[in-house]
Design a protein that fits this description.
The chain is an alpha/beta fold. It has helices at residues 2-29, 45-64, 84-96, 109-122, 150-163, 177-189, 211-218, 234-244, 260-266, 293-307, 314-333, 338-346, and strands at 32-38, 73-79, 102-105, 126-128, 143-145, 168-174, 196-203, 225-228, 251-253, 274-277, 351-352, 357-358, 374-379, 382-385. It folds into two domains: 31-148 and 293-372, Response regulator (Rossmann fold), CATH 3.40.50; 151-277, 3-Layer(aba) Sandwich (Rossmann fold). A hairpin with a 4-residue loop joins strand 11 and strand 12 (357-358). The protein is globular, with a radius of gyration of 24 Å.
Length: 387
């Protein structure tokens, strides 16, 4: 009787062990779910389209190489059309129904800010591809971002303006999330760079002509440079109207237009326009010993081989950086557990991405400094490094 009972216990124990091994094996086979919401269509499609293409391309490559910590990656994506309400709805779905392990995305500052309360409450890591400094200042425990901030863009632009012996600046800013945020940042940091804001105009995302605002700026005494915080079609219209009115002062755009699409939209009027951007746009023009060159050249050649010559943009680079930082964090943690990955993201040191060298900390969820920006000028329809 005792022997039969002992044998039964052994069989139960063996079955439990087998079930445990099977469950563990199944867990290893379960995909790591990457959630994403991007503006693939609509007014910000020039941001979201290359971001989605980048995520799809590199997730496919990672899976082809055996996945991440032995598990395949699964991308679950929703197109927001740059609508903050849609972003909130989709983020809720990603978190509650799709049960994603991380969210990579948010093409714009507005859509990103709309979902931050949700990811903070759910305690799931979120890496945004949007520019506003408000995304990471003040620091939110579960929120990170990859692009340079609007405040950094203001600083880089003002440094260049001062290097030209100029100081009296006019702003013409979009009233969307990014334009509004960058205008505020430029206004705040101007005194630290000995810059005086002598005119301050705005335009709505739906405006198709900015002649009235630019005429006011032109009639303002002493304007030495014009800075246009904004993204989308607005900056291209500003650039065309600026040329039509015959301005004889420099025009600066933000990194929100750092793609060939802007040059195509603005046409010949873009000649001489300067903007801060990542090294990705001038990858081939970087010195051979530049430590960022291998990364940006690798991404550029891979992307353009699949999507066409000249199609690379800094915005796809933001997605590359976000995915690769997540990959590094998961590998460092040895798990896709959200809390462990969050800690590993915050501990990233010396990660070289398309935006620059990233060193995160508990007080800095971006990890870039002003040196990561390159000042570029548009000449004959192409980007040139400003020496």
């Amino acid at each position: 009787m005792v022997k039969r009972f002992t044998r039964a216990l052994m069989m139960v124990g063996a079955a439990c062990i087998a079930l445990g091994v099977t469950a563990q094996a199944r867990a290893q086979e379960d995909p790591i779910r990457i959630g994403s919401f991007l503006a693939v269509t609509g007014p910000a499609s020039f941001l979201g389209d290359p971001e989605l293409k980048t995520l799809e391309m590199y997730i496919h490559r990672i899976n082809g190489a055996g996945g991440l910590i032995g598990r395949p990656l699964e991308l679950i994506h929703y197109d927001t059309g740059a609508d903050a309400n849609k972003a909130r709805t989709f983020a809720k779905r990603l978190l509650e129904e799709d049960e994603v392990d991380v969210i990579l995305g948010g093409s714009t500052t507005g859509t990103t800010m709309a979902v931050i309360p949700l990811v903070e409450r759910a305690e799931v890591p979120f890496v945004s591809f949007a520019g506003g400094v408000v995304i990471i200042e003040p620091v939110k425990p579960w929120v990170f971002k990859t692009p340079h901030t609007d405040r950094m863009a203001c600083g880089k632009i003002f440094e260049d303006i001062r290097s030209r012996g100029l100081s009296r600046v006019a702003l013409i800013s979009g009233t969307g999330g990014f334009g509004k945020s960058m205008r505020e940042q430029c206004t705040q940091v101007a005194p630290a760079h000995d810059i005086e804001i002598v005119a301050d105009e705005t335009y709505a995302p739906s405006d198709t002509d900015m002649v009235a605002q630019l005429t006011k700026i032109k009639n303002t005494e002493g304007v030495e440079a014009v800075v246009n915080p904004g993204f989308g079609q607005g900056p291209a219209i500003v650039t065309k109207n600026f040329a039509q009115l015959g301005f004889e002062v420099p025009l600066y755009q933000s990194h929100g237009v750092a793609s060939k699409k802007f040059i195509e939209l603005a046409g010949d009027a873009a000649e001489g326009v300067r903007l801060p951007a990542s090294a990705l746009l001038v990858a081939e023009k970087l010195p051979m010993d530049d430590p960022q060159r291998p990364v940006v050249m690798g991404y550029k050649t891979t992307y353009e081989a699949e999507h066409g010559e000249g199609s690379v943009s800094t915005f796809g680079g933001h997605a590359y950086d976000g995915l690769m930082m997540y990959k590094q964090a998961v590998e460092a943690a040895g798990t896709a557990d959200p809390a462990a990955v969050r800690d590993a993201l915050e501990a990233i040191q010396g990660f070289m991405g398309t935006a620059g060298e990233v060193t995160m900390s508990a007080d800095d969820h971006l990890g870039l400094d002003l040196s990561a920006f390159r000042m570029l000028e548009i000449r004959e329809g192409d980007w040139v490094l400003v020496e």
